[in-house]
Amino acid sequence: MTPPPSDPASTGHELGWTPIAEEAVRAASVLHPKEGALPRPNRRRVLTVANQKGGVGKTTSTVNLAAALAVHGLKTLVIDLDPQGNASTALDIDHRSGTPSIYEVLIGEVSLAEAAQQSEQSSNLYCVPATIDLAGAEIELVSMASREMRLKEALSSEILDEIGVDYVFIDCPPSLGLLTVNAMVAAQEVLIPIQCEYYALEGLGQLLSNIELVQAHLNRELSVSTILLTMYDGRTKLADQVTNEVRNHFGDTVLKTVIPRSVKVSEAPGYGQTVLAYDPGSRGAMSYVDAAKEIAQRGVEMKERSGTA
Q1: Whole-model pTM?
Q2: CA–CA separation, 24 and 21 (whole Å)
Q3: Segment 55-95, tens digit of pLDDT
Q4: Residue 81: which domain range?
């Protein structure tokens, strides 16, 4: 347990420090940030969240980063490109069969704006859901013209201007198939979650090779802009070893913030919520807010670099 601060008055409570009061203060700082809105990027940022390994915190990171940016005043769109529909579940978005979804967008039946739904968790948070129909989409896309470009065509500047979003997060399935290729062609940036566990870097080379192929043949603007370390357990030496190895290899691409292994983060989707809505005072929620702030700050730095180029 964290010890009480030496000055009880510093918590703002006349009755002194208690664990419940401490968590309430943290929750208030997440839901009602004193510093106000985060800075908008100089241009809309479209990030594909990809890792062909399952269970690395990919969908969890997608929805919680999006929610954190939305809480801090940035309009954010999540595109659920995983047939399992877990991002839609976490944002409490209707994704029953027959609901206008990313499947209908990919085959050209509806526009992205028509499929986007506003999440009740924030007025700035939108989601294009995935339904079970998406499960067969890879087979259907094979015979379509410009099959790798379907999502990029749907994510036109005109459509995104109509929705008015600052950030787009594309949650990919745990594979390197045609849906993931569509996501990489449609984005400018790739965000890779890496868990702080033994097999963290296994298969990462294959992912990076696929990104290079997409860069060479389909999307020259694509880059790995962000790596997020997830499921960090400070009780183990292994977590520190993996963290150091990833930072040594990828340098400043890795966010300073590390997402801890957290029961609250795991529980939240079961209630149709992000961890920011489920338990905003938890370590997991605070960590995702810190990571979102880093991402937003990088958007400003990108603006400054482009302005001086």
Answers
A1: 0.87
A2: 5
A3: 899 999 999 999 999 999 999 999 999 999 999 999 999 99
A4: 37-302
The token pair that represents 145 in the structure block: 């013209």
CATH of the domain at 189: 3.40.50.300
Q: Which of 288, 270, 280, 295 is nearest to 231 (CA)?
A: 288
Sole residue written with tokens 């400043």: 252
Identify the CA nearest to 119 among candidates 169, 159, 44, 82: 169
Number of domains the chain contains: 1
Residue 153, beta-bridge partner list: none
264-279: average pLDDT? 94
Answer yes or no: is 242 within a domain.
yes
Instruction: Identify whether 1 is part of a domain.
Output: no
Length of the chain equals: 309
- Residue 166 included in any domain: yes
Side chain identity, residue 121: Q
How far is it, in rounded angstroms, from Cα 276 to Cα 100? 27
Q: Is residue 257 part of a domain?
A: yes
